[in-house]
Automatic annotation (TrEMBL):
Keyword NADP: yes
Matching Gene3D superfamilies: 6-Phosphogluconate Dehydrogenase, domain 3 (1.20.5.320), N-(1-d-carboxylethyl)-l-norvaline Dehydrogenase, domain 2 (1.10.1040.10), NAD(P)-binding Rossmann-like Domain (3.40.50.720)
Role of this protein: Catalyzes the oxidative decarboxylation of 6-phosphogluconate to ribulose 5-phosphate and CO(2), with concomitant reduction of NADP to NADPH.
Keyword match Magnesium: no
Keywords, in A-Z order: Gluconate utilization, NADP, Oxidoreductase, Pentose shunt
Domain annotation 6-phosphogluconate dehydrogenase C-terminal: ranges: 178-467
Family that this chain belongs to: Belongs to the 6-phosphogluconate dehydrogenase family.
Gene: gndA
Protein name: 6-phosphogluconate dehydrogenase, decarboxylating
Amino acid sequence: PRATIGLTGLATMGRNLARNIARHGHTIAVHNRTEARTTALVEEFGDEGDFVPSASMADFVASIERPRAIVIMVKAGAGTDAVIDELVPLLDEDDIVVDGGNAHFTDTLRRQRALEERGLHFVGMGVSGGEEGALNGPSIMVGGSDHAYERLAPVLESIAAQVDGTPCCAHVGPDAAGHFVKMVHNGIEYADMQLIAESYDLLRHVGDLRPAEIAEVFREWNGGDLESFLIEITATVLDHVDADTGRPFVDVVQDAAEQKGTGRWTVQSALDLGVPVTGIAEATFARSLSGHTDQRAAAREVFATDPDPVEVERDAFVDDVRAALYASKVVAYAQGFDQIAAGSDEHDWDVDPGAMATIWRGGCIIRAQFLDRIKEAYDAEPDLTTLLTTAYFADAVKQGEAAWRRVVATAVAAGVPTPAFSSSLAYFDALRREHLPASLIQALRDNFGAHTYARTDRPGTFHTAWAEDLTEKEISA
Ligand code: NBP
């Protein structure tokens, strides 16, 4: 055996990851169900490093040094289970199986338990950055045992994106911690993109800016505290003109957004954990809504009248939208980090949120200057209650608050939907309020269902005899 590590599954992601590993001087065994992909990889890129190709799974396994480290990079779900089933009988005690696909974290929990029973290590590894990241440096979120991480670290830390000399790769925690954090990362990506899309919509349809002018605005924003990969590529996309029609590219793309499911998973998990990730949820629902083209057509028929146009002063409006975008983004990230903390508590993962901000600074889609501020906030206060109230973010929100309200009010008046802006503002208002109408909810629940309530003036659990004499009974002190 001569390979340091093996990788099976050589489609877009696996092939680029294998090249990245080879380019960093590691001898890598490569395999794919359909041999043609393996042959093509070695033919096209064999001179980039030391590849050990195998046609069969048995030869592939035999070509890797023990204890083996084998990365699976195939279609998530049934594909991953099929590869694990084929691989496991060929392995020896202490070997490490790494799933680098986008697995649901509950699948990772199940696989981890099954492999542990057989004396093997299972590592759920979240890889972010798409095709380009896999080749040139992804952000890598690793779950599993300390032992497994130590074995993998030299390879993974060398191939990850590097920011200020720090690899964007971390041991997130045991078993499914890596895949869980990758899922929330994708959810945050949904929220980020929705906020950008709402900003564009407002600038275009209320601010009356043309796509090329909006590209210029985004380029300018990218020079400030909004600096990020997504803001940068928004400028690129908005500048692009369709070659066939000469129209702005954004106008020839159908307005029905797609999703592969990680946003939905994030929201489902957040519901289970009881964490209000309203930004991610609205972003996910907004994509669903855009895809309901029949309902949209029906509604256009009936309600096609536009509200009266809203007059805005262009430069001031652009500044307001920037402030609203930033404040809403702070909320969306605060919510995402709340979900990571809740998942970590629920599963005893002991995730360090500051470390997540650190490894998202490079390689992944949500990479941004902003993440340095999040890391600083967690460094200063590791057990913080919410990111929103830490000095830097609280200041940003306070400074942007008035603009945020103006933008949401203007959007409502103009009939431009801003679900992520609006819900983030509602979340902020709910958090900062002295009293919430949840008191009325509790009273109603006690009235129709005897669900009991707590009082503001003394401890205990109470129920009011609504159908009888309206006396209050203390249920327990
Ligand atoms: P795909 O998700 O398109 O999967 C194709 C690969 O899976 C091929 O190697 C194929 O082998 C293999 N495969 C399938 Br399908 N069923 C199999 C089975 N039953 N047994 C063995 N192999 C099987 O590849 P991808 O786009 O490179 O993504 C790989 C993983 O990385 C996925 O989990 C994906 O969610 C994740 N991911 C993707 C991105 C991205 O930007 N694309 C980013 C981050 C993570 P074949 O060649 O024989 O058909």
